[in-house]
Amino acid sequence: MLTAEVIAAKRDGKALPRDAKASLIEGSTDGRVSDAQIAAFAMATLIRGMDAAERVHLTQAMRDSGRVLQWDLPGPVIDKHSTGGVGDTVSLMLAPALAACGAFVPMISGRGLGHTGGTLDKFDAIPGYDTRPDLALLRRVTAEVGCAIIGQTPEIAPADGRIYAVRDVTATVESIDLICASILSKKLAAGLDALVLDVKTGSGAFMVAQDAAADLARVLVDVGQGAGCPTSALLTDMSAPLAPAAGNALEVEVAIGFLTGREVDSRLWDVVTGLGGEALALGGLAGSAAKGRAHVAAALESGRAAEVFGRMVAALGGPSDLVEAPARHLARAPVVEEVLPDAAGFVASIDTRALGVLVVELGGGRRVASDTVDPAVGLDWLAGAGAYVDGETPLARVHARDGAAAERAAGAVRQAYTVIETPPAEIPVILGDIR
Fold first, then answer.
1. What is the set of active-site residues?
2. Inside any domain, residue 66
3. What residues make up the domain containing 37?
4. Among the three residues 315, 349, 375, which one is the final residue of a domain in this structure?
5. pLDDT, average across residues 128-151
6. Model confidence pLDDT, tens digit, residues 309-323
7. HSE, side-chain direction, 13 A CA sphere, residue 159
8. Can you tell me the distance from the alpha carbon of 102 to that of 305, in angstroms, rounded to the nearest whole number?
9. What's the rounded Cα separation, in Å, for the pair 107 and 133?
10. Is 379 found in the same domain as 277?
11. Domains identified in the chain, total number
C-alpha cells in the first residue's frame, strides 16, 4: 500500500495489515515517509485506535527498525519500565538488585519528560558516567557486572525517535496505541526474556485517573505478551513523590542511601521489591512473585545490590567510590533552605505534579529539549502523605542557585501541600497487578 492509502485506511477506521504498518515504519526510518505523513497517521491512530493485533504488529515493526540484541548469557535478560513520576528512583536500585539475583539487565532508559524526572538525567549527575555507550560497551558491562543503565542508542528502534518527535508537536502524544509501541519497541529491541512494567496513577503521573492507567497497563501487558515477551505490570500510586527527594543529584543520593541501608523509605521499598519479585518470577529465577520479593530483599539487605551498583557506575566511567562517598562527587546547590508549613498538622494531600514542575523551574529539568539540566537543584526531605509537620519539621528542603529562586520555590511547596489537623487514611503504594 502507498503511504497515503495506509493513512486513509486508518482514517476510515480500518484495521491495517501487518505489511502496511511495516512499510510505513520502514519509510519513517529511511526518510521516504515525510513528517506530514507521520503526523497524519498519528492523528488517525489517535482518533480511530487500533485493535490488539495491530498494536503488536506496529510494536514489532518499530522494534525491527534497528538492531535487535541477541544474548548468550547464563541467566535471563530482564528489564523494567516506568511510565514516570516524581522522585521515581526505582531503576537505580532495582537493576543492581536483579543482577545480584542472577538476572542480566540492559536497561535502556529515557530523559525527563514534562514534570517527570528521567533516569538518564539522574545518571548524568554522576561525573564521568557514560549514558550513551556503544553497543559493544553495553554488552560487556551487562555480561560482566550484570546490569547497565544507559540511554537509547541510534541503533535501537530508530523509528521511535522520529515518530515521537512528530507526535510531540502534533497533539498525538496521548494515543495509547502509540504510547505502547514507543515504550515496548525500545524494550523488546534489547532482546528481553521478561519485562515488568510500573504504570503510575495519581497527581504526579501522566495517567492521573486510575481507570486510564489500568487500561494502559492492560494494553502494554497484552502487547508484550503478544510480541513473545513474558510481561506483567504493577499499578502504583503517584499521588505523592515516591522518594523523599526530587532532583537529579539528590535522587542519586537517596538511591545510594537506600542501597546501603542508611535510609530506606517504606513506599520505595514496596515498589522496588514488588517489581523485582514480578521480574524474577517472569524470568524463571523465582517460583512466585512472593519468593522473588524475598530474593530482592535479601540482595538489598546483604549489600550485594549496592556492590553491583558501584561496579556498574565504575564500568561506565563514573567514580569507583561513589557508593562510599557520594558527597565527594555529586553536585551541591549553593542555597539550601527548609520550608516550614503555615500551621502544624498532618499532610492530607500533595499536588505532586506541581512539585515536579517546580524542580523544572529551578533548573532540574527541561522546558524545551535543548535546555541544560542543573544536577544540583531540587527538593529533598519531602514530607510524605500522612506525615506530621510543624515549626520544626519541614514540608521539604529547597536546593537552589540563589536566594530569590529558593524563596519562590518555598512558596510553591507550601501551595502544593494540604495540611489538616487529623491523620488522613493511608493509601497503599501498590494498587494492583496485571498479569
1. 79-82, 119, 167, 182, 186-187
2. no
3. 3-49
4. 315
5. 95
6. 999 999 999 999 999
7. 30
8. 11
9. 12
10. no
11. 3
CATH, residue 341 = 3.90.1170.30
Angle made by CA atoms 116, 122, 125, in degrees to the nearest 5: 135
Bridge partners (DSSP) listed for residue 199: 235
User: Is residue 176 scored above 80 in pLDDT?
Assistant: yes
Q: Which amino acid, one-letter code, is at 375?
A: P
Average pLDDT over residues 145-153: 92
Distance from C-alpha of 254 to C-alpha of 248, rounded to nearest angstrom? 10
pLDDT 10s digits, 260-271: 999 999 999 999
- Tell me the average pLDDT across 351-367: 92
Pair (187, 40) in one structural domain:
no
Instruction: Indicate if 125 and 271 belong to the same structural domain.
Output: yes
Average pLDDT on 410-415 reads 98
Close Cβ partners of 349 (under 8 Å, ≥ 6 residues apart): 203, 239, 385, 417, 418, 424
Residues 6+ away with beta carbon under 8 Å from 373: 112, 121, 124, 248, 363, 364, 365, 366
Distance CA 435, CA 425 (A): 28
**Which residue, 172, 163, 242, 148, is CA-closest to 202?**
242
Note the pLDDT of residue 112: 60
pLDDT at 84 over 90: no
How many residues would you count in the chain? 435
